[in-house]
Write a structure and sequence with these properties.
The protein is mainly alpha-helical. The protein is built from 16 helices and no strands.
């Protein structure tokens, strides 16, 4: 079921970026474009899945075990899943900038005359230390789509203090992160200077939304682990009510949070139904395995495909369908090779070292 949900998420992300690219070449009907735009909520599905799977794969260490060893193993395995692809694509976009600066997004940060050691060092530092943390407006220019991966790293670090918390504490954590989001929004509008700038940065980071979905994933896992019961106890009910109230008064409630929750819920309901179909489950397991690479690589396919589709003069809806299929097929094929030759050996090595640690 989780693989099917992940497949829906990556297909939605590919669709929305394909629609944006096609729309620049062949204007799509507004109704079609708006429907395709819903695919951007696939990122929130990834965040929920991340919270659920991390809570499942990395429960708190048993009493008496080394907490330091657990943290080291956890961080090493999470880094092995994210950093190899991050570094590979950072190197790719740097090479593209050096060879074809006018074709690179990085030209919006540096001019072609900056394609030198100092300019490259600037990009490397932004990339390795995650520009989204320090300069959110530059994140997508260093690695397209990198903002969601960088938020995922924030989630990984956030899980360390959350790993031992129960249902009530997770609910209060949701309430707390939403209070931070509401406060940051209004503080950025009310204050000037350093205070307003800091509040604005917190608001732009979108932590009150991304962390919300990550915490929902952890909460789902905690509820599954809990003993069967008909309702929350009184303290959990208070925490739940606080969470719902703070979510409901969030400035992005109607425009962002509610549609995202609707999409996420629809994806998991569909996955629950489709999991009974063996072929879909099998195909989804394969796609889910390469989903990180597909996410990174489909951005690489957009501009070449856009140049190709300019000359085809296809009807808009047909162009969108073919564009999406081509982008996904190319990314999936490259993902198959990347996983077998690059990602899997690294994961096996790190897992062998951390298992014996």
């Amino acid at each position: 079921m989780l693989d099917i949900a992940r497949t829906f998420a990556i297909l939605g992300v590919v669709l929305v970026h394909s629609a944006q690219s096609v729309n620049d070449v062949v204007p799509l009907p507004m109704s079609v474009f708006e429907q395709a735009e819903i695919g951007r909520f696939g990122v929130q599905v990834f965040f929920v899945l991340s919270g659920f799977l991390i809570a499942h794969l990395y429960p708190p260490p048993p009493t008496g075990d080394s907490n330091r060893r657990w943290i080291g193993n956890y961080l090493a395995r999470r880094a092995a899943r994210i950093y190899p692809l991050w570094i590979a694509f950072l190197a790719f976009y740097l090479t593209l900038f050096l060879c074809f600066p006018e074709q690179s997004n990085l030209s919006e940060i540096l001019s072609p005359s900056d394609a030198n050691v100092a300019g490259v060092l600037h990009i490397i530092l932004l990339g390795l230390f995650f520009s989204y943390w320090s300069a959110p407006h530059l994140s997508n220019l260093v690695i397209p789509g990198g903002w969601s991966i960088e938020l995922e790293v924030i989630h990984y670090l956030l899980y360390l203090p959350l790993r031992g918390l129960g249902i009530r504490a997770i609910l209060w954590s949701i309430a707390g992160i939403e209070a931070l989001g509401v406060g940051a929004f209004w503080a950025s509008a009310a204050f000037q200077g350093v205070a307003g700038s800091m509040a604005g940065t917190i608001d732009r980071l979108g932590l009150s939304e991304s962390v919300l979905f990550f915490l929902v994933g952890i909460l789902a896992k905690r509820l599954m682990e809990a003993a069967p019961r008909d309702s929350l106890n009184s303290s959990e009910a208070v925490a739940f009510s606080a969470s719902v109230i703070l979510i409901s008064i969030h400035p992005g409630m109607l425009s962002e949070i509610l549609p995202k929750f609707g999409f996420v819920a629809s994806v998991f309901v569909a996955a629950l139904v489709l999991v009974k179909i063996r072929l879909i489950s099998s195909v989804s397991a394969s796609i889910a395995k390469y989903s990180y690479f597909i996410y990174f690589f489909h951005f690489v396919t957009l501009r070449p495909l856009q140049d190709l589709f300019i000359n085809l003069e296809l009807p808009p809806v047909l162009a969108l369908g073919l564009f999406s299929v081509c982008s996904f097929a190319i990314s999936y094929s490259a993902g198959f090779l990347s996983y077998r030759l690059y990602e899997k050996p690294i994961l096996r090595f790190v897992h062998s070292k951390t298992s014996s640690a």
